[in-house]
Amino acid sequence: MGNYKIKWIIQRVTATILIPLTFWFVYNCVAFSSMSYNDLVIFFKSNLNSFLFLFMSIVMLFHAKLGCETIFEDYIKSIKLKKMNKFLLNLIIFSSMFVVIFSILRINFLNV
Questions:
Q1: Rounded to an integer, what distance in angstroms lies between the CA atom of residue 85 and that of residue 68?
Q2: Assessment of whether the complete model's pTM goes beyond 0.90
Q3: φ/ψ bin of 33: left (φ > 0), alpha (ψ from -120 to 50), beta (otherwise)
Q4: Domain that holds residue 75
Q5: Which helix (H) or strand (E) holds 103?
Q6: Are residues 103 and 53 in contact, defined by beta-carbon separation less than 8 angstroms?
Q7: Per the structure, how many domains does the chain have?
Q8: Domain containing 20 — which CATH number?
Q9: Which residues make Cβ contacts (< 8 Å) with residue 100, sequence separation at least 6?
Q10: What is the pLDDT of residues 37-91, one digit of tens each?
């Protein structure tokens, strides 16, 4: 029972963290529409913008992972199907985290 309580609290904390980050991201997405590719690279070369985007992406993926796991636990009765779905979820989430981290590092540390 304690595991569900901890997951519930973590979900609320990540949701609270995502509120201001989502406003920041949506505001910048509107600005992205009028930027060129070079302007976007310059935007993401900024340490602050890179950190905020990386932090938002990781928190958002972790938040989504917890939410999907809760859905699997509540609505899937087959243990085999539940394990397979959790494995696929973890594969997708950690692959996405790798892509985000790799992309930010590539923009910041390699000449693009």
A1: 9
A2: no
A3: alpha
A4: 2-109
A5: helix 79-109
A6: no
A7: 1
A8: 1.20.1300.10
A9: 53, 54, 57, 58, 61
A10: 999 989 999 999 999 999 999 999 999 999 999 999 999 999 999 999 999 999 9
